[in-house]
Amino acid sequence: MKDRFVIIDLETTGNVPKKGDRIIQLGMVVIENGQIVDRFSSFFNPERDIPPFVQQLTNITEQMVADAPSFAEEAAKVADMLQQSYFVAHNVSFDLQFLQEELHMAGLPPFSGPTIDTVELARIVFPTAESYKLGDLAKQLHIDHDQPHQADSDAEVTAKLFIALLNRLRQLPLITLQHLKRLSPYLKSDLYPLLDNIIMEKMASLADEKSYIFYRGIALKKPVSMQRKEEDHHKDASFAAFFAGPHTLPLDHYERRDGQWEMMKLVYEALETSQHALIEAGTGIGKSLAYLIPSAFFAYEQQKRVVISTHTLQLQQQLLERDIPFLKAVVPFPLRVAVLKGKRNYLSLDKFIAFLQEHHQNYDVVLLKCQLLVWLTQTETGDMDELNASSGARLFWPLLVMDEEDNGGKYNFFWRAKQRAEEAHIVITNHAFLLHDVTASTPLLPDYEHMIIDEAHHLEEVASHYFGQQVDYVSIRLILTRIGKVNENGSLAKLMKLFAGRHWNADNHFLRCGQLVEELQFECDELFRMIRRYALERKSAESGRCRYRFEPQKESGRQWSAMKELLWRIRGHVANLVDETKQLQTFFSENNMESSISAQPYSYFSDVSSLNQIIDTLYDLIESDDPMVVRWIEAEEKGAANATAVYSQPIQLDEFFAERLFMPKKSIVLTSATLTMNGSFAYIISRFGLSDFYPICQTIPSPFSYKEQAMLMIPSDFPPISSVSLEEYAAVVAEGVSQIAERIKGKMLVLFTSYELLKLTAAAMKMEERNEDYVLIAQGVQSGSATKLTRAFQQFDQAILFGTSNFWEGVDLPGDELSVVVIVRLPFAPPDDPLIEAKSEYIRAKGGNPFYELSLPEAVLRFKQGFGRLIRTKKDKGAVFVFDRRLTSASYGKYFLNSLPSLTIYEASLDQLLQKLEKWL
Predict the structure, then answer these.
(1) Residue 33, burial from CB neighbour count under 10 angstroms (0-12, 13-18, 19+)
(2) What is the similarity comment for this entry (predicted)?
């Protein structure tokens, strides 16, 4: 029994066996003693239709199952193979429910043995895997996967994955396996006996554990020190010598691109001559290597560090995992590269150990503990962004990461990252941390005077968020729930228990803390109800969401006064809670307890500190008045009565950028695929306050031949947006998308500027029977991140992906993965957006034109990003449809068209355009 595993995979007509969905194919692979010993596979006649999208996904047609046996005919054989075995599957609950239903229909007893889910086991064993889809894990482990979504092939791959997972479990240190065994009863898989066997084997073999260090009962990977600084200079280690060479790179499948070499030269020139530069690099240039190579040479030759800042943590990771290995293969000297992020990105070991000791039965928490235990045996950085944790688990991250005040204990991951950065030629960071560093009283990044800012068009937006403030009801409620009342299981009750265990008498303090928390829970609830009501009464909700801009000195009336009064009272309660907490903290210092106990009690102290901070921020948002700051309230019209948030952002940041970023540094190179509007850098120069610095400005066009690879199509038979209702326009868009889908028989990305129009269009498309051959994936309608939805989209041959904001850029779908992009409306920000409204007023007050100085440039840059989704490689071919006739009818349409690369533009009826497209494709 202990060593027999039956790995199963099924293909079915749908997802719900109780509603009549049936198995159409079954694959089984038997593993004994770590080896595959038997296989079984068969198609089954489901005695019902197979939906078109299932046929598309699995390549199993109705003809293939027409003469196949029914499941009942093979049921006894299947049940017999499962005797005395573990039932193993990738997402076991799905396969098991179908099998149980089929066994029941065949008159056989249900399977009652142990089960293992390879998705869950992979999450634990490979906590940093990018994806837990079977195909992605197979690719990571170099397992051939010839026919995805065919049960026999999937079962074979799952079996090989399972063997790899078992081998990886056996390599874990004993202490980690013992922790996993203790946690395993709360997992979905029956791992307890399996782990018990592995632990017994391990204890008998006395395995070597020299590659780990042990800290307070957990195993950590032994850190590898960074290579020492080499004093000797390599004779060819100069950019001049490199650039004088044959203009090729020693990389597999490298395609020489003149634009890439032109950009390298520009970047090196800017760094060497201490100038700031703006470089717009078209798609396909190979921008990352074009700035990394000259940066590396400059840093090595001059012994001056170069900092590289990216927009997101994902881009930071991409540079580290994909581009830096290439860079090290290219440069003729040993290169040291480090990554540095904000403190809250790193795990606090003491907090984790306290968390591990606490008893939790919540599934997300238990799985997170298992992942962290394994990850600590693999990570050198302690950077939590390496982890692929569930969204439920991420709610607990604030309890585990380092605080700004946190010294990190003996193994301080943030301090180690800073040490690596001090020794590096190149330091990679992100825009948010860069701003934190620029504004901190003591710098967090090591000394530097030269910098590259990638995805520079996002820097102002990141700075607006960074200098802005935000408080929402959910955050306050979360902290108050974490603290809890004295009779609950929060951090307050845990501290009380610790005091009782040490016979310290502080009951009065605890009683007062409990009363204050209770009052705060009630009054914060009431305050956010009042804030929501106040906003909704003053501003009609667009698409169910209200955004009311307020100016503290101009607001008046009884409601406003009552809100302020309640806020003052809440602030008073928090001040009292802080005082009582200080009294409790003195017990620790007087008894010199800080060093001898776990981090557990500190969670209460940090919770109170966080609450104090957040209420101070709310007070500042509603009380202080700065004409250069815009403030607004956001509330859902149909949401919970207190589901409300208050925001502020600065209106203008050009002076900040000029004085704090560009003036102190010798050379900053800003690069992106979208920096110009109508061929000019003027807009970006004004936003960043760069006018007085006379930066180098250069556009390097894409190497792609847009004339031959792309067409821009504008249907002339669509109504002007302003002439019809949103519902009518959604019906027209749905009809247009359906017609394109019917004709191209490929994949399509449809970009919206509002969720409301997206949802209405998706609903209209679902009404149409002719769209059955297409899989529709719509952001906000289906749950999941942009990455998750894009992955789902990639699985099908015929699919339509509806997306808003974060689909306009960063989505990479080369080749057959995309043949048409539809831009539903020109991407102007809504005029009632509080930030746009305030910036427009500021421009108007200075005698400017907000439309031409703000709204239009922003829309054009966004439009270029959307257009850029279509052509990602030299082999791509397709069309961009723009359903907004303003592109040709409005006087400002030329600004959009002039910002695109040279390509063929057609304007005609949709039917005529589709005839042209069919011939061309």
Answers:
(1) exposed
(2) Belongs to the helicase family. DinG subfamily. Type 2 sub-subfamily.
Q: Which residue, 331, 385, 338, is CA-closest to 130?
A: 385
Query: Considering just the CA atoms, what is the radius of gyration of the chain in Å?
Result: 30
Q: How far is CA 825 from the centre of its chain?
A: 26
Q: Give me the chain's average pLDDT, please.
A: 90
Alpha carbons 835 and 810: distance in angstroms, whole number: 24
Per-residue model confidence as pLDDT tens digits over 626-640: 999 999 999 988 777
Q: At what angle do helices 473-483 and 602-623 cross, to 10 degrees?
A: 150
287 is in an annotated binding site: yes
Structurally, what CATH architecture does the domain formed by 706-920 represent? Answer: 3-Layer(aba) Sandwich (3.40)
Would the annotation count 514 as a binding residue?
no
Q: 771 pLDDT band (50/70/90 cuts)?
A: low
Check whether 282 is labelled as a binding-site residue: yes
So what's the pLDDT on residue 596?
44
Is the distance from CB of 495 to CB of 584 less than 8 angstroms? yes
CATH number of the domain at 4-171, please? Answer: 3.30.420.10
The span from the CA of 106 to the CA of 145, in Å, is 32
The owner of tokens 């326009």 is 729
Q: Does 284 belong to an annotated binding site?
A: yes
In the chain, domain spans: 4-171, 469-650, 706-920
- 639 among annotated binding-site residues: no
pTM of this prediction? 0.86
Q: Is 27 annotated as a binding residue?
A: no
CB contact at 8 A, 560 and 552: no
| Cα 224 to Cα 217: distance, rounded to the nearest angstrom | 21
CA-to-CA separations, 309 to 168, 312, 434, 668, 687, in angstroms, rounded: 35, 9, 7, 11, 18
SS3 138: helix
- Would you say the C-alpha torsion 670, 649, 654, 686 has a positive or negative sign? positive
Question: CA-CA distance, 338 to 353, in Å (whole number)?
Answer: 27
Element (H or E) spanning 843, and its range?
Answer: helix 834-845
Instruction: Give the position of tokens 């982890």.
Output: 387
User: Which string of DSSP letters, residue by residue, matches 503-540?
Assistant: T---HHHHHHHHHHHHHHHHHHHHHHHHHHHHHHHHSP
DSSP H or E segment with residue 472 = strand 469-472
Length of the chain, please? Answer: 921
Q: Is 288 annotated as a binding residue?
A: yes
Rounded CA-CA distance 722/719 in Å is: 8
Q: Is 286 annotated as a binding residue?
A: yes
